[in-house]
């Protein structure tokens, strides 16, 4: 995935910068302030034991209205360059719900939006705390045109860096405790007023007379009484203009902190007996299959025949797709045994009672790890055809080989935490080799509140000598259903790439499952 790739969740304004004499696109920024920016993806935030080892890095940016807080946030992102996932969280989303009397005052420019009491600080702190702890959050949506909090919310998840900005960002002590870096943007009052007029006319449909009246009545007194005093809490004070030196210092500090928090362990879990001690404390060879606690599809002559066809490199794509779908169907059917069932009595067509079972799961959904996990989706829908299916895009970093989360598209049952606790998730990937993608996918589901014992991982192949033993140790409650187990994981180098630690240019280190079935995603889709 190229570093210049930027995904932004809503429509954005695109700008350019000159790099080596050529115009290149900058990360796009939008007037709507709550955004998710992704360039090279989110690296692991957990260790080989599956536990979270680092929080998101949180920056609080405060200052007067029109001081340039949003500009400073944009410049931080711009100068960080190839950034991991960044969330810009605006205080403006957390204005309180207004009754009819308050709405009438708001439309008459008679309601004070610049007092700390206008904001729902407890919800602001709770949402920011969740995001910092690598959990999902559903942020309120506020309409300045309607002067009202809307019924819908905005789902946010997956930040390595969070920038929380607003005039009151440093007022509340609970918020200040969450920041790793506190920034105050200091600007001349006349310049702030000019910027506010231009913004409110252009973006919020206000007239100049109403803007000036509101400024003199509420904004200026609030700035003097509440906002300006919070500069004493800041770690760094940034000028409202000509602030490139200060922003460079901030970016240097952020890079250092992210490097301190980085986790690089794919090599350890890829061939664990070389790097990680066993539970007894000694480095051991590969685990036995029975020690891995896998649910393996019964190796009937039919299954052995399907695997023979799939392993054969001469098998054409049409036959490969047909037998992959057939094997996926068998695997999903076999995985249904891990769902709960309750007794049920029915009446037969001859008026007799028959006692059986019914599925007793409140919510069920599927999640595929793209793109090879998509090869299981057709079989999944053949067996369970009326449940939502989401996806996770997890790829390897081109330099380090570590897993990167590039996109999270989860079903509603998982996005909402009160539903996630009661949801069974079928997680699907073509194989578990190094287990790096499986680690990240399971960690994402746990972050959302899905219970470990309600995750059912379905895969065609597992490498016994690979990362599955570490995966089982980290997440013992997860059920793993596989079609077969191969013995070997072999180290190699991806030719034509000069990666880290390879001055000779042998390429990036990769691990290949043997005998395996090759690149299942490529064979299925190409």
TrEMBL record:
InterPro entries: P-loop_NTPase, PRK/URK, PRTase-like, PRTase_dom, Uridine_kinase-like. It comes from the Eukaryota. Residues 58-240 form the Phosphoribulokinase/uridine kinase domain. Residues 298-491 form the Phosphoribosyltransferase domain. It is an enzyme of class 2 (transferase). Pathway: Pyrimidine metabolism; UMP biosynthesis via salvage pathway; UMP from uridine: step 1/1. Its EC number is 2.7.1.48. Keywords: Kinase, Nucleotide-binding, Transferase. It holds the Pfam family UPRTase. GO terms for molecular function: ATP binding; uridine kinase activity. This is uridine/cytidine kinase. The lineage of its organism: Eukaryota, Fungi, Dikarya, Basidiomycota, Agaricomycotina.
């Amino acid at each position: 995935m190229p570093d210049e790739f930027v995904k932004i969740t809503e429509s954005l304004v695109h700008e350019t910068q000159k790099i080596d004499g050529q115009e290149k696109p900058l990360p796009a920024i939008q007037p709507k302030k709550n955004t998710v920016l992704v360039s090279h993806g989110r690296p692991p935030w957990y260790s080989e034991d599956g536990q979270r080892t680092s929080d998101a890095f949180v920056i609080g940016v405060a200052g007067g209205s029109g001081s340039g807080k949003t500009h400073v946030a944009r410049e931080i992102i711009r100068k960080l360059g190839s950034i991991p996932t960044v969330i810009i969280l605006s205080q403006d989303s957390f204005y309180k719900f207004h009754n009819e009397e308050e709405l009438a005052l708001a439309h008459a420019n008679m309601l004070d939006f610049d007092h700390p009491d206008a904001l729902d600080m407890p919800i602001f702190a709770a949402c920011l705390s969740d995001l910092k702890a690598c959990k999902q959050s559903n942020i309120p949506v506020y309409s300045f045109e309607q002067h009202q909090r809307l019924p819908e919310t905005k789902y946010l998840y997956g930040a390595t860096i969070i920038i929380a900005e607003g005039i009151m960002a440093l007022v509340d002590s609970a918020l200040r405790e969450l920041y790793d870096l506190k920034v105050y943007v200091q600007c001349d009052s006349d310049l702030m007023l000019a910027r506010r007029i231009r913004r409110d006319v252009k973006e919020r449909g206000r007239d100049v007379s109403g803007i000036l009246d509101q400024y003199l009545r509420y904004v200026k007194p609030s700035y003097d009484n509440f906002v300006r005093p919070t500069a004493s809490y800041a770690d760094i004070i940034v000028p409202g203009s000509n602030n490139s030196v200060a922003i460079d210092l901030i970016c240097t500090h952020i890079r250092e902190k992210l490097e301190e928090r980085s986790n690089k362990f794919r090599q350890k879990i890829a061939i664990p007996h070389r790097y990680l001690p066993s539970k007894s404390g000694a480095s051991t060879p590969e685990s036995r299959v029975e020690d891995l606690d896998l649910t393996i599809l019964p190796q009937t002559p039919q299954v052995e025949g399907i695997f023979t066809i799939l392993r054969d490199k001469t098998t054409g794509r049409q036959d490969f797709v047909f037998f992959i779908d057939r094997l996926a169907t068998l695997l999903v059917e076999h995985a249904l045994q891990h769902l709960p069932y309750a007794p049920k009595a029915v009446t037969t067509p001859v008026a007799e009672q028959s006692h059986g079972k019914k599925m007793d799961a409140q919510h069920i959904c599927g999640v595929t790890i793209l793109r090879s996990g998509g090869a299981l989706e057709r079989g999944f829908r053949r067996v369970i055809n009326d449940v939502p299916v989401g996806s996770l895009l997890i790829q390897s970093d081109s330099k380090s080989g570590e897993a990167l989360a590039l996109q999270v598209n989860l079903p509603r049952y998982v996005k909402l935490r009160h539903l996630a606790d009661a949801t069974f998730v079928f997680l699907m990937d073509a194989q578990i080799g190094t287990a790096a993608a499986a680690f990240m996918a399971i960690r994402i589901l746990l972050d959302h509140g899905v219970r470990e014992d309600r995750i059912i991982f379905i895969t065609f192949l597992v490498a016994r000598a690979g990362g599955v033993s570490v995966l089982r140790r980290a997440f013992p409650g997860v059920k793993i259903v596989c079609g077969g187990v191969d013995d070997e994981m072999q180290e190699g180098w991806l030719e034509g790439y000069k990666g880290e630690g390879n001055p000779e240019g042998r390429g990036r280190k990769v691990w290949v499952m043997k005998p395996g079935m090759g690149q299942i995603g490529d064979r299925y889709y190409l």
